[in-house]
Description:
Blueprint (H helix, E strand, L loop, with lengths): L1 H76 L8 H11 L10 E7 L3 E4 L2 H7 L4 H10 L6 H9 L3 E6 L6 E11 L2 E10 H7 L2 H41 L5 H22 L9 E2 H10 L8 E9 L1 H8 L1 H18 L5 E4 L4 E7 L3 H16 L7 E8 L7 H17 L7 H12 L3 H20 L4 H12 L10 H4 L7 H8 L1 H10 L5 H9 L20 H16 L10 H10 L7 H20 L1
Parallel strand pairs: 6-8
Antiparallel strand pairs: 1-2, 1-5, 3-4, 4-5, 7-9, 7-10, 8-9
Amino acid sequence: MLKSFRIYNRNTTRQRIGYKAEIFGISILTVALIFLGWAYIYQETNKYKEGITESFATNQEILVDQVAKSVKSELERYRPKDGHSYGQAEKAAVANVIKKAEVSGSRYWFFYSSDEVIFERDTEETRNVVGKNRAELTRYWKLQGGAGIESFEEMLTDRRNGSAVFSKGNQTGNEIVSVKYFAVEDKDYYLGMSTLQTYVLSTARVSEHILYLWTFSALVSLDILIFSLLLCLRIYKHQVESERLNKSIVDKSLQIQELNRKLTSKSEAVQNASIYDNLTKLYNRKFFDNLLARVNHSLLKPVSIVVMDINGLGQLNAIEGYNAGDELLEKTSEILHKVCIDTDVVARTGGSEFTILMTATKEAEAYGTAKNIKRQFSNLQNAALSLSVGVAQMQEKENSIFTVLEAARKNLILEKMLDENSNSNSIISMMMITLNAYSHETVAHSIRMREIAVSFGKHLGMAPSALSRLAVAAQLHDVGKIGIPDSILNKKAALAAHERDLIRRHSELGYNIVKAIPFLNEAADDILQHHEAYDGTGYPNGLRGEEITLNARIINIIDSFDAMTNESVYAETKTMDEAIAELRRNSGRRYDPYLVNEFIKGVQMIGRERSKA
């Protein structure tokens, strides 16, 4: 009986493999045919749209060329030697030629000189951009959400005639822009016409033609799919009938034995799945959270929690595949198994996140373990990836371990914000990019501030979590200047009273911006107070002494030092000795005297080391 069962099982397996292979082959062939068909249709529709756009651009260039001749004639008729200025000649050209040209809701004209915008679309739009040079105009468009403007910039720079397709703002979409260059005496001019691409495609009934083509393709694809399904259904029915006809008596005792074996195996798998992570063999998040809720922390103090996350794992998965990411996770878990002691509870609590519960361990000791893990992780062959760490210790008055876990995760986020491999760093990068549009000098100053803050914080012996908060606050301390006009930020002359008041608001504006970002509420307080003076004469709230946060007092010192020793629109650059003398003069008034002394020690020590080198 056992032999008969084995023969039946072997034959059935072969038949199932055969019919599944047939169905799989038909499915692959069907998907391939449909995919290739739609890829071809998609390619052809794009070519069709491009052809319509190019044809329209050619016709538009002819019209622009004709109008450009009229404009040039108008400008030459109002030559300066006849008593008219260039400005009068340009206004006459706008009034007598461009405004008389045929326009509609989807087509308009523009007229630029080599120095500035003369006319753009209509009176209202001209009022917004008139007088801007080309660089200022493209920056204005980019701030409005424009994209792909570089090709148009190159045409104007190279004095080329032709057309380009780009967007001047997120409200309009892509436009077909044709431009004609000409010169009158010693001055260059650019005349052009812009038409919404959607208008061109609509008038050419492109969408309607493409819809017909897609409908036909969909019907053909549906026919192919129905035929394949019918064929697979026939193969499946044949297999079911074959199994039913070939099925023989199966030994019931073997069925029961097999059932018991499967139940035992599944029971063990379910038990392991409820505790361990399948890939890393570490505890899973569910078990870890349940364990935290049950541990009697009062008997295990001091208790520390380490949370670490791999930066760039998602990018590794996207480039090299999930197998590469899984291999890295396994190697990381091996490092954790090797470094952590038996009393440590190590768990994988996220896709790339690991958490360690350390009992009878202080925060400094936990950081030592984390530093060892980071060093061994850096030896893995993954140069583009890094490991961020957040550590927190349970304080005496705390009675919830989850508060400590939250603090460790907050410290992790702060460190990730400073790591270029981390997605969290995009928050700071975005702010720096936005700030760069207002002042290049402020961005360079902010980057130097972060470096000086980290160096000074290490000199003061600050913990890594405090260093991360200080570095973030130092880099973002001037982010409120996003709300200050660049004409004031870059003004070299003395500021008026209302301009100084506006500049002073940047600490409050920065506070409101950073306060809205999760985990940065403490850094927001540092930014708000970084212009408070030690004697209470600062702004915005007139705080004094230790009412001001430690980080704000540090930023106040290094902000002044960097501003004095680097080029600035506000004052002449000082030597290092002059800057140190200025800090000492204001010690106890504007600055914390202890921090000033320590900062000067650090600066002088760095100076001595450089002189020796």
